[in-house]
Write a structure and sequence with these properties.
alpha+beta; 16 helices
């Protein structure tokens, strides 16, 4: 990380709001993020997609801010704003010139204090969310692949298995009363982390935070979902037909070690993913050795990246293939894992894979907003705001043994395979 980056400072307000400040003066900008401890996996059965719908409602006005005015004010200050819903959190983020920092804090505090919920806003955002699902999933080749469908193959509990984008029937059931209860239970100060990064004066920033957030009443947060479930006892397979996909595709999912309780083992899987995926990765090599033609091959920890969810999470391998049968692809995945579990990677191969991963990590987090979002998510999920800065060093300390152990663990465990068929392919395995 850049030398001008100070270590994150943490504070907790009397109402329970956790605050992370990080001075980073590479440009006169400030990023403000609020991460709430609520995501896809917080949704009750029959209400799939509710967390994402609520993300949209949070931009529909608050006590002193009109409908969609949040965007207008941030953009008028020379900045941008948006939100995102993941498995275990919903985040709201903005970046603007540092001179607008207090304005950004006011906006986030105002909607944390009082959200303006109306039937018109609910109806409008239901239509917007449905259109987003159509655009990103239904009308796009490989839309949502694999995070919308693979969880239902690997997991059994509704909280872990369902499609977080939501079912249209479930979305249409949403009521204003449920929205109000959702806000009261999850959008509480004690259920949130406020992250501020950039060209900031920490003392003045904390004064502004206290001024705008300190008088928001504390209230109890909703009880978290119990995510624990047994590991699969054997291989499982699911089928999905994508009428817009030009080629078949396969996604193979394995359960990851707990990122909190088994940190070292989890790190080994990040290195394993770097060795498996990509144009010159082990999966592509072993597939070619076996006469298996892959158009693309990827591997990663988590559906949205490493350390982006709590346990249980998924090690994901995906491939697209022009004519190869699905079982030959899954066989190539197992062969690549067994190869890395046996001889393992050469030192130079491992160094190159980790070096590429670290370089991409640095490039991504050189962006102030991306960095602030990662800090906030790490603080919420793992109580470790320094993790985005520390992760490259953790990876560079790994040796071949960590990769061998990770590969052996996956090769000996039960995978879940999602088989994506084209319209013309039918159910051919």
């Amino acid at each position: 990380m850049p030398e001008d980056l100070e270590s994150p400072s943490r504070f907790t307000l009397p109402n329970g709001l956790r605050v992370v400040l990080c001075r980073r003066g590479t440009a006169p900008l400030a990023a403000v993020c609020v991460h709430y401890d609520v995501g896809f996996r917080s949704e009750p059965e029959g209400r799939s997609g509710f967390a994402h719908l609520f993300e949209h409602l949070m931009f529909q006005g608050s006590e002193n801010v009109g409908r969609s005015e949040h965007f207008t004010i941030v953009q008028g200050s020379g900045g941008t704003a948006n939100g995102s819903t993941r498995q275990d959190y919903t985040e709201y983020y903005q970046i603007a010139p540092a001179s607008a920092l207090e304005r950004l804090l006011f906006l986030e505090a105002d909607r944390m204090r009082t959200l303006r919920l109306t039937q018109n806003s609910l109806d409008t955002q239901l239509a917007v969310v449905k259109e987003e699902i159509k655009l990103n999933v239904h009308d796009r080749p490989y839309g949502g692949f694999p995070w919308t469908n693979l969880p239902s193959v690997l997991f059994r509990k509704f909280c872990n298995a369902h499609n977080g984008y939501g079912d249209f029937i479930d979305l249409d059931r949403a009521t204003l009363e449920e929205c109000a209860a959702f806000f009261d239970g999850y959008y509480t100060p004690s259920n949130a982390v406020l992250t501020i990064a950039g060209d900031i004066d920490p003392a003045r920033t904390l004064e502004w935070v206290t001024r705008h957030f300190g008088d928001i009443p504390a209230r109890p947060a909703a009880a978290p979902q119990d995510l624990a479930e047994p590991w699969p006892s054997g291989p499982v397979t699911g089928d999905h037909t994508d009428p817009r996909a030009p080629l078949p595709a396969t996604a193979v999912g394995y359960r990851l070690p707990d990122p909190a309780a088994e940190r070292e083992r989890y790190l080994g899987h990040i290195a394993l993913a770097a060795l498996l995926g990509g144009p010159s990765g082990r999966l592509r090599q072993r597939a070619l050795d076996r006469g298996v033609d892959l158009t693309t091959a990827t591997a990663q920890c988590g559906f949205f990246g490493p350390f982006d969810a709590r346990d249980p999470d998924t090690f994901v391998v995906t491939a697209r293939h022009p004519s190869t049968r699905h079982r030959e692809v899954t066989g190539a995945v197992v062969a690549a894992l067994e190869d890395l579990a046996g001889p393992g990677p050469a030192d130079a191969e491992l160094a190159a894979a980790i070096g590429g991963t670290v370089a991409r990590w640095h490039r991504r987090h050189d962006n102030l907003l991306a960095f602030a979002r990662a800090v906030g998510a790490s603080a919420l999920l793992h109580d470790e705001p320094s993790l985005p800065a520390d992760l490259p060093g953790h990876l560079e300390a790994l040796g071949p043994g960590a990769v061998r152990d990770a590969a052996a663990r996956l090769a000996g465990s039960a995978p879940a395979a999602l088989l994506v068929h084209t319209r013309d392919a039918g159910g051919t395995p």
